[in-house]
Design brief:
The chain is of the alpha/beta class and about 325 residues long. It has eleven helices and eleven strands. The protein has two domains: about 5-140 and about 260-305, Rossmann fold; about 145-260, Rossmann fold, CATH 3.40.50.460. Bound molecules: adenosine-5'-diphosphate and 6-O-phosphono-beta-D-fructofuranose (F6P). 6-O-phosphono-beta-D-fructofuranose binds near residues 14, 129, 173, 225 and 257.
Length: about 325
C-alpha cells in the first residue's frame, strides 16, 4: 500500500448544512496524520479547472457552525462523460493527489465511483438534505433541513388557525419523500404527499373536508416537490371543491437548504469526515461512509449509487394514523 501524502476534499451537488463541519474534520484529521489536504473549489467544475488550494487547520477555523460550504459547490455536465472523468483524473495527478474525499449527494457519489473505477482512491461522504442515498441511515444536512421545515410549519400553523385556512407546504427532496414524511409527522399535518405514493385528489379532498367537519381550526398538508399530483393541482382542486377552509400555498424551496447545522448534523459530519480520512489511510477506495444505527460503517459506492432507498411504509402509515 502506497503512503498517502496528499489528499483532496471537495463538496459537490446541492449544498447541505453540515458540509463545513465535514470539511473541517477531514482537514484536521489529515493534519493529525501529517497528510497534506487540498480543497477543490466548486466540486467537479473546480477539479476540471484545476482549482485546488492547500488547506491548513487554520483555514477551517470558525466554520463548524456555518451553513453552506466554504469550498462552494456546483453541478457539472462534463464530468458525466468519460472524457470529463479522465480529465479530472489528470488534474488530480498533476497536483500529486494520492486520494480524494467527495462530500455530496447521489450524483456526486456516482462521479466518485467513476474515479474509483479509473483506479483513483476515493471515499464518499453522503451529504444531501434529501436523505435519498442507500447505505446510510442519515445523510449530512437532513436533520438541519427537517428542523427548518418544522420551524416553518409551526409558524404557518399560527396564521392558518387564526384564519381557518388549509396550508399546503411544499418541501424539497427531489424524488424522495423523506423530508415531507417526517415533516408531516412531526409538524402534525393532516396529510402528506410523496413521490413514492401517488394519491388521488379525491382522497385529499376527503381528508380536508373531514378535518373541517370535525371542527379543526386549520389543516396542513406537506407535499414533496416530486409528488403526484403537484402542489398547484392540489390547491386548485381543493379551492374548487369548497373544502370549508380557504387554501394557501407556501413553497419552502431553497430556504430548507440553508442555516446553521444542528448538533446532530455537526456530529454526523464530524464522524463521517474523520472516518473518511481513516479509510483512505487504511488503503480503502470505492466506499462510502454510512451511519448504521450508532456505528459508522461503510458500503460500496456501487451499492450506494445503484440501490434504491425507500421511505419506510411504516412511517407513511404512522403519518396517516396520527393525522386523524
Ligand atoms: P447531488 O450530488 O446533490 O445528487 P447532482 O445529481 O447534480 O447532485 O450531481 C452533482 C454532480 O455530480 C453533477 O453535476 C456531475 O458533475 C456529477 N455526476 C452526477 N452524475 C454523475 C455520473 N453518473 N457520473 C459522473 N458524474 C456524475
Ligand atoms: O438535492 C438537493 C436539492 O435541494 C433537491 O432537494 C432539489 O430538488 C435540488 O437540490 C434543487 O437543485 P438546485 O439547487 O439546482 O435548484
Amino acid at each position: 500500500m502506497s503512503k498517502m501524502r496528499r489528499i483532496a476534499v471537495m463538496t459537490s451537488g446541492g449544498d447541505a448544512p453540515g458540509m463545513n463541519p465535514a470539511v473541517r474534520a477531514v482537514v484536521r484529521t489529515a493534519a493529525a496524520h501529517d497528510v497534506e489536504v487540498y480543497g477543490i473549489r466548486q466540486g467537479y467544475t473546480g477539479m476540471l479547472g484545476g482549482d485546488f488550494e492547500l488547506m491548513t487547520s487554520r483555514d477551517v477555523s470558525g466554520i463548524i457552525q456555518r451553513g453552506g460550504t466554504i469550498l462552494q459547490t456546483a453541478r457539472n455536465q462534463e464530468f458525466k462523460t468519460t472524457e470529463g472523468q479522465e480529465r479530472g483524473l489528470r488534474r488530480l495527478n498533476e497536483h500529486s493527489i494520492d486520494g480524494l474525499i467527495v462530500i455530496g449527494g447521489d450524483g456526486s457519489l456516482r462521479g466518485a465511483l467513476a474515479l474509483h473505477k479509473l483506479g483513483f482512491p476515493v471515499i464518499g461522504v453522503p451529504g444531501s438534505i434529501d436523505n435519498d442515498i442507500w447505505g446510510t441511515d442519515m445523510c449530512i444536512g437532513v436533520d438541519s433541513a427537517l428542523n427548518t421545515i418544522l420551524d416553518a410549519i409551526d409558524k404557518l400553523r399560527d396564521t392558518a388557525s387564526s384564519h381557518e385556512r388549509c396550508f399546503l407546504v411544499e418541501v424539497m427532496g427531489r424524488n424522495c419523500g423523506y423530508l415531507a414524511t417526517m415533516g408531516g409527522i412531526l409538524g402534525g399535518a393532516e396529510f402528506i404527499l410523496i413521490p413514492e405514493h401517488p394519491t388521488p385528489l379525491e382522497e385529499i379532498d376527503d381528508i380536508i373536508k373531514e378535518a373541517y367537519m370535525k371542527g379543526k381550526s386549520h389543516a396542513m398538508g406537506v407535499i414533496a416537490e416530486g409528488a403526484t399530483p403537484k402542489t398547484k393541482e392540489v390547491a386548485e382542486y381543493l379551492e374548487a371543491q369548497k373544502v370549508g377552509f380557504e387554501v394557501r400555498v407556501t413553497v419552502l424551496g431553497h430556504v430548507v437548504r440553508g442555516g446553521s447545522p444542528t448538533a446532530f448534523d455537526r456530529l454526523l459530519a464530524t464522524r463521517m469526515g474523520v472516518r473518511a480520512v481513516e479509510l483512505l489511510l487504511e488503503g480503502q477506495s470505492g466506499v462510502m461512509v454510512g451511519l448504521h444505527g450508532r456505528e459508522m460503517g461503510t458500503v460500496s459506492l456501487e451499492d450506494a449509487t445503484t440501490k434504491q432507498r425507500e421511505v419506510s411504509e411504516y412511517f407513511v402509515e404512522m403519518a396517516e394514523m396520527l393525522a386523524k
